[in-house]
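Lecture notes, part 5. Sequence design as translation. It can be helpful to think of inverse folding as translation between two languages: the language of shapes and the language of residues. The source text, in structure tokens, appears below.
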């Protein structure tokens, strides 16, 4: 339903995105995760045709956003950055004016959407008097009025209280259940993403570091607690051969590297191995590990020491 391929974007010579590709299936709720400045908003901006990529392309269905912007975005509803409203007008008048820009205003359909987002009682009041949560609901109503098939949301729960976050989560899950809505949203709130998303794309410094379920992070770089002597000899040996030193006596191995092979190689090079046990990590630990800035490139093959 939505796809980006080979996205590159730099601002003032500084890369914000480097070769980012991923896709979102029809009816999927997909989270775009990463630290501040990882490139999430730039990616959404490119999908919405608001940011021009240096290289690469975004597609909605099989229509290229860069080649046929209007047609591609016909199926898309979005909340991008802080939605701008006419503060001195009521919510209803805002929806009427904003719907008029992009097509026909349908009062009955708008009334239904307003009820759906729980704003019926307050829809005639000035937007200037709305709380942050009410503005978000109004923005959601605006995005849903054209009956899109895809929703793109930029940090949708930012600044909402816990009730607002729960309301939003239930709302999105209902939309998917009822209409098969496809949703892509930016977040750095791991817990929220975990509760809502089928799959995620995780960015680190503009590069994709994981695409799949959050749970599958567990398989990407299993961690082991080790007791190796002498450590001063074992640590550089492990790093040289593709392992990552996480802390004293804690290492991560590339998924395709069998621990038995590592142990044999360590023993073979004269290192005493008295412990080598897998460690269970929380999702938060895994996320923090994968989004942490790497100290160096460790993608080396495993070569037993001479
Ligand atoms: N219009 C712009 N001009 C210059 N630099 C920009 C612009 N937009 C984004 N950047 C830079 O590109 C990088 C990625 O920014 P982006 O906003 O996409 O990150 P993000 O993951 O959405 O961050 P956050 O979680 O803080 O919103 C950052 O270094 C940012 O400073």
């Amino acid at each position: 339903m939505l796809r980006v391929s080979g996205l590159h974007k730099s601002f003032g010579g500084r890369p914000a995105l480097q070769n980012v590709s991923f896709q979102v299936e029809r009816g999927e709720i997909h989270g775009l995760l990463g630290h501040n400045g990882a490139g999430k908003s730039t990616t959404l901006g490119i999908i919405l045709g608001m940011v021009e990529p240096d290289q690469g392309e975004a597609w909605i269905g099989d229509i290229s956003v860069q080649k046929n912007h209007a047609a591609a975005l016909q199926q898309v509803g979005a909340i991008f950055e802080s939605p701008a409203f006419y503060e001195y007008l009521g919510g209803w008048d805002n929806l009427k004016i904003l719907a008029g820009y992009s097509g026909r205003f349908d009062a009955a359909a708008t009334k239904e959407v307003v009820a759906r987002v729980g704003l019926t009682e307050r829809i005639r009041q000035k937007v200037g008097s709305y709380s942050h949560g009410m503005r978000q609901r109004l923005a959601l109503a605006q995005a849903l009025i054209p009956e899109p098939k895809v929703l793109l949301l930029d940090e949708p729960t930012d600044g909402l209280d816990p009730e607002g976050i729960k309301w939003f989560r239930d709302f999105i899950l209902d939309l998917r259940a009822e209409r098969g809505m496809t949703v892509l949203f930016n977040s750095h709130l791991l817990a929220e993403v975990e509760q809502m998303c089928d799959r995620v794309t995780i960015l680190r410094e503009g590069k994709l570091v994981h695409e799949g379920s959050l749970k599958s992070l567990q398989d990407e770089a299993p961690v082991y607690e080790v007791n190796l002597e002498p450590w001063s000899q074992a640590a550089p040996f492990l790093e040289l051969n593709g392992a990552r030193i996480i802390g004293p006596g804690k290492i991560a191995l590339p998924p395709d590297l069998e621990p038995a092979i590592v142990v044999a190689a360590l023993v073979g090079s004269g290192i005493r191995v008295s412990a080598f046990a897998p460690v269970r990590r929380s999702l938060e630990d895994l996320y923090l590990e994968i989004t942490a800035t790497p100290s160096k490139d460790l993608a080396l093959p495993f070569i037993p020491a001479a």
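The translated text above is only one of many valid answers, since several sequences can fold into similar shapes. The longest helix spans residues 162-179.
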